[in-house]
Amino acid sequence: MNRNNPRRFALASTAIILAGLGGCVVGNNSKLQRPTIGQELIDLQKAKESGAIDEAEYDRTRARILEEAGVSARPASISGG
């Protein structure tokens, strides 16, 4: 019987185990996705309607969401032509 077999078996087993454990750590590349601006505004409206937040909190949060999105919180005025 070849003396290297137990050693090779141990090395191969260790390599397989480490490869499997490495997948547990490295394999999760999922990123947390932020909801769309529309979904945030819908959720905010529902919170206001349910009484979870008041009108002032609704207005502040809505303005913040729109500001972060680069959208004006007020509709643009239409100039007549």
Topology, please?
Blueprint: H1 4-26, H2 37-50, H3 55-68
Helix pairs in contact: 2-3
Write a structural description.
There is one protein chain. With 81 residues, the chain is mainly α. It has a domain at 37-68. It has 3 helices and no strands. The chain has helices at residues 4-26, 37-50, 55-68. Helix 2 runs antiparallel to helix 3 (55-68). The model has no long low-confidence stretch (mean pLDDT 79).
Helical percent range?
Answer: 55-70%
Computed Rg:
28 Å
Uncertain runs: none
How many individual β-strands? 0
| Count, helices | 3
Shape: rod-shaped
Which structural class is indicated by helix and strand composition?
Answer: mainly alpha
Please sum up the structure shown.
The protein has 81 residues and is mainly α. It is built from three helices and no strands.
